[in-house]
Structure formats: structure tokens, C-alpha cells
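Sanity check

After download, print the first record. It should look like this:
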Amino acid sequence: MSLKAPTRKVFAKLLSLFVLLLCFNTLVMVVVFSRMAGESTDKALRLLRSGVLGAGLIALCFALPVAVWAAGSITRRIKRVVVFARRIADGDLDARLEASSGDEMAAMEAALNQTAERLNSSFAEIESHRQELAAMLDSMQEAVVAVTSDGQVRWFNALMQGIAGTQIRTGRSLVQSVRDPELLSCVRGALEDHEVRTGRASTLAPGRVFEINATPLPGGGALAVLHDVTRIEAAERARRDFIANVSHELRTPLTSIQGYAETLIEDPLPDSEVNIEFLRIILKNATRMNRLTDDLLALASLDSPDNKLARHPIRASELIEDGIAALGGLVVDSGVELQNAGAPNALVLADPDAMNQVFGNLIENAVKYAGEGRRIKIGARMQDSEVEFFVQDFGPGIASEHLDRIFERFYRIDKARSRESGGTGLGLAIVKHIVMALGGRAWAESELGAGATFFFALPVVQGNSTADEKAKAEETLEGC
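Expected C-alpha cells:
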């Protein structure tokens, strides 16, 4: 309902009041003229003047308060409507008009209150949808930023904020918020050509790569979605490197086997001693290929999500003794002295077969680099809630730049020496994966000229120091 209709009705009421007063004045005049009919002329005139003056004063005294009251009431109610309208315009949708008497203004006030209720409900629903959309976009694994048709940032999610930092703000130009040329080019293309643009950003964050999809919006502007493909890129690069390394590792023994086999076949006058030497070389390379295949299968098994090592409480001292017993023959044949440096009786969770493989790879690696000392120490020590196992050699040592990468697949410090000794470059990688699967960690420490020490740590089973307690721990683990 508009304001004109109630206003017209109010003025109609005032006009009716004026007519009523006019009728009252006319009635007074009739009474005065009736009295004048029986009086003299002079007296009639005086009576007429006094009657008219009295009637006017009576009408004025009666009409003035009524008019002031009516005007004040209307003014107050209109002011309340104006204040209410301003509060609604300022966004205060909880504003309401007070209920009044059941006239036309009251009907208008009720209609305005109803309109405010509907506006409040509509805006609350819109805000709820906006918060749901914002929460959904913030929970996305992709960074999202929306810009206006003139390139100003309209909206961005939390991930985009994390990438761009404090530089990105609503209302600020995207060019001033991010500096990656590929992202800016894609957004500009979507704004100018109204077409979807794709690209790849590599300078938004150090060491991270993003795929960009910039899409024009129907109402103007554009939306850019950034998908982090850093891990995919790293996995693809690792896959390519792995295939290249495996191919390279297989090519050398295969070439050797092929060459010696062809020589044996084509030799018209075979020499038994030469043949035996060639066959030994073929066997050596076949053995190397077999070891490489076994190591690759072991790594594949460790990388499989279905692979779960058996974890049993075992004393650290028993693991050291079993490792020495299993590999004693290898060490003796190489002329290296294997020393037991001792170990605590603390229980650790480990897989006995996997631990034999760990010690085997570490001791075999140490034998290759035992150096002039020709001795290897193997032992363990308590360190907080872990047992740190170590295998120490006294060879030439390892330069510091290699220590962080020495557990990588196919990483070698001296490639020629490693291949000559029959190494596959996977032994230390297998050690790291087994230890990590058991909840531990592996690392190396070394000084050039002072040998190298390879460590791995396993968590301790707390509160189990006797044989009975060890059995109890085994029952507990089996029950889990």
C-alpha cells in the first residue's frame, strides 16, 4: 500500500471535521437570527456581531486542538515510517514499526512490517547460501579467484589466500595481487575473448606447479581455478627417472651377456679356459640382473598399500645377534671383522625377516667401504622413546652433500665402484622403506676419512622388560 491513499483518507477526515464545524456555526447563526427577529435594529446588529464572534470563537476553540492533535499524530506516525524506511535502507532488516490503532495508517504500517519480514527472510536465505558456497569453495583442493570485467578481484577462497598471501584483496587489481604471467594471461584471455583459457603456472609459489582454467562468467568477469599438480609432476618425473634408471641398469649386464654369448657361439675353435671365463662373466651379470629384479620386487611390495609387515615385540639385543649370525659368513669371506657394539634389552616392534634384510643391506654396504680398518661395528642404543640401531664402517666416508640423498633409489656416490661390486643402487632405499613401514626413520652420518655410520630408529614398546611382559605384549598385539 502506498503513502498517498492513507494521506488522502486523513485529509478527508479533516475536511469532514471542517464541514461539521461549519454546520455548527450555521446552527448558531440561525439561533442568533431568530432572536434578532424580535429585537430592534441596533440591538439586532449588536446581537449579530456578538453572535458571529462567539460562534467563530467557539468553532475555533473546538477545531484548533483537534487539528493540532490530528496533525501531530499524523506527523509522528509519518516520522516513524521515515525512520523505519531509513533503517531498512541501511541494512537493519530487524527494524519494525509499533502496532497502532486500526486505521488506514495502521494498515500501511502492518504492510511495511510484513515487507520487512519478507526481506529479512530473503536476505537470511541468501546469506545462508553464500556461506555454504564460501565454505564449499574454501574446502576445495583447488585455489579459486573471481575477477570483475575490469580485472578487479571480486572473491577468492582460503587456498588462494594461502598462495598469494596478503597481496590479494577484494577490490584490488589482479595484476597487483599476483605476478605469475601465465595466470594473468589466462584471465585476460577469458575477459577479452569470452573463451575458456588453460595454462600452467610455476611461479605462484616456490616449488609448486598449478594447472589454470580461466572461464568467463555470464554476468561479466571471469573465474580462475588453479589445480596443484606438483605431486603429479613429481610422480611423473620419478616414474620417468625410474624407468630410465632400470633401463640403464639392465642394459649393461644384458649387453655383456649378449656379447660374450655371441663370442662363444661364433668362436670356431673354443678354448675351454676362455669359455669358462666367459661363462663366469655371463653368470655374474645374470646374478646382478637377478638381484636387481629381486630388489625391484621388494620395493614394489613395500610401496603397495596392501603390504603390511608383521610387527612383533623383539628385544633390540636379539635383533643385533640375529643380524650378526645371519651375515657372519659374508663378513668372514670378505676378510672384515664384525664387532658387536652391544644393545639394550628394550623391546621394539619389528618384523624379524624384514630386519634381517635391513641389516643385510647395511652390512653388505659397509663391507664394500670398510676401508683399511677392515672392521664393522653393529649395535644399538636407547634414545628417549626409541632404540637407535647403527652399522658403522671405517672407510673413506661420505661427503656431506650426498647424505640427504643416499637413501634415494639408484643414487650412487661412486657409480663405477658400485657397479663393479655388483650393487643395484636399491639397497639403502629398501632399508628406508622397511624402517618407515615399521614406524621408524633412517639416516646417515659421516666425515670424510673417518668412515660412515648408518642409523635407523624404531619405537620402544613401553613397560615391557621381562620375558613374561614380552609374552603379554605379544598377546596384546595378536588381539589387536
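If your output differs, re-run the checksum step. Summary of this record's structure: DSSP finds 14 helices and twelve strands in the chain.
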